[in-house]
Amino acid sequence: GAATLVGSHKREFTMTRELFGTDGVRGTANTYPMTAEMALKIGAAVGRYFRKDSSVAHRVVIGKDTRLSGYMFESALTAGLTSTGMNVLLLGPIPTPAVGLLTASMRADLGVMISASHNPAVDNGIKFFGPDGFKLSDEAELEIEALVQAGVEPAQSRNIGRAKRIDDGLFRYIERIKSTFPNGMRLDGIKVVIDCAHGAAYKAAPEVLWELGAEVITVGTSPNGFNINQNCGSTQPRVAAEAVVSNGADLGICLDGDADRVLLIDETGAVADGDQIMALFASRWAREGRLKGNSLVATVMSNLGLEQFLGGEGIGLERTNVGDRYVVERMRSGGFNLGGEQSGHIVMTDYATTGDGLMAALQFLAALVQSGLRASELANVFEPVPQLLKNVRFEKGQTPLDDESVQTEILRVESALAGRGRLLIRKSGTEPLVRVMAECEDEGLLHQSVDAIVSAVEAVL
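User: That's the sequence. What structure does it adopt?
Assistant: Structure tokens below.
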């Protein structure tokens, strides 16, 4: 999809992307593009793309979350990949960040994660990681998309790849995660509620916390193929918040379906989003002299309050397009080591190649132990500026943001907010929505601003 940021036209996509959205290919299972047939073609295309030199053994690791359709896509991708001569290692249900980690550590040419993240169980998606463990660039995705459309020659019959299930992927990930926790520190005497959203971290997350000494209360750890993200996880933290309060826990950790994002719940049941977590880490790391570039990388969605807080601490804020991969791209190009999204992707490139909810939670727990403070004292770093987001759904082929009347209204509202707040209008990368977001201390002006643009868009539609 085309991504346009009003007011900061840093990066305009002119290339057409039919298959790939902001985070791989995604959609409802068994409807285009998320069909077994399409997964077969994508597997073959991505296999051909990475198997440049046929004389060497090529391997790919595939992980998935707990959706029923994961079996189907795993089989179809495996068929496509092996048809082009790739050897496939099947990791089973495992967090997205584990796939990034294992792609690099197991010297694979490619990592594939089958997941629709925080979406409902009927959806699924396919994300790709390059040999360095980082998500593929837009350019690589476009080349793969071209190969899907053109079709690829299968390998000669003696060069077809093999596939096998491996069990030690999860164990490797658990050990790696624990190694990011300060050496010699323990979680003895700390009571933690962990909500795994019936998703990919249902085995790994409780195990890691327990092995580090915590008393663990689990929520969302019995997946059945249909209940991923259902009334649980980072998008619906209510059940976990109730568990924290009723059990007198010190902290609640809510992961999403593929465990690459996290929301934290303090001992009172209040929720801290990605902005608060990033604010805490950035200020602590800056004081310890380990915040590279003395800046945090976040997206245009992050709260103005975060920006003001960082400014007061003398810390820079680099803003990017929405999508954790754009955050990571900026971190890599600028040499920064902390970034993320308000939705709870926290990226710490010293430890991992992508957002890792469990790893971020461990960093918070380390701060809890070191400071001796309660979670509520650590997680309320700044006062958020009131933020309002409204979505307008449009039909395929409609381009309401290109209409002159909408553009005129946007300019009018922008000048009304000048110096008092900010306005962000963008097309969603995952569904046919125009997202209208504003921030302003003056709540009246805030609602007027958003409603004016929503009305202008609806009038065009």
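The longest helix spans residues 443-460.
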